[in-house]
Amino acid sequence: GELENTMLRSYIKAARLRGWLAQPDCSPAIQECRALFDKVYAPKSATNPGQELADDPIDDFNGVIYSRASTHLGNSQILFYPRGDRSLTPVPASIKYIYGTLTEEVLFAAQRLLPLDHQARTVDPFSMYPDFPAKLYSADLESCLENVKVSWVVSHFARWTVSGRHAVILSLSR
To answer: Do 78 and 160 form a contact (C-beta atoms < 8 A)?
Structure first.
């Protein structure tokens, strides 16, 4: 609608302005303005000047909404191909941050769910049903963050914590 069109145009204009201000051949007078823009409009939690936090939630233009876990837990749960390698099995993760690069690519900083602890002899009861897309994982998340491109994401997943240590993950792939 009209509101979405206005928001998209504003985002594009702001991205172009940021790109123009980032050019090394930008005049000194404009560079002074950049310092003011950065003080006023730069996100306080951006850790790298080349990156900014993106809007939360975001729509990937295919009707799928992604959010940070702190905003909406369900929309933060994603299955993705590690490093974008489609020959690998998708892994579950939770989106902690959403950010954009200067090239306007949207990325997620996500934490994977830990796999089952096989030393504890935990067996995945869903493994004998290959046509049922559920799998048992640890309920805990990895401590490190991983960059995930939107194009690597397969789908959201539903999560049911069945005990303090285990969660059932069910793919919501269409």
So the answer is: no
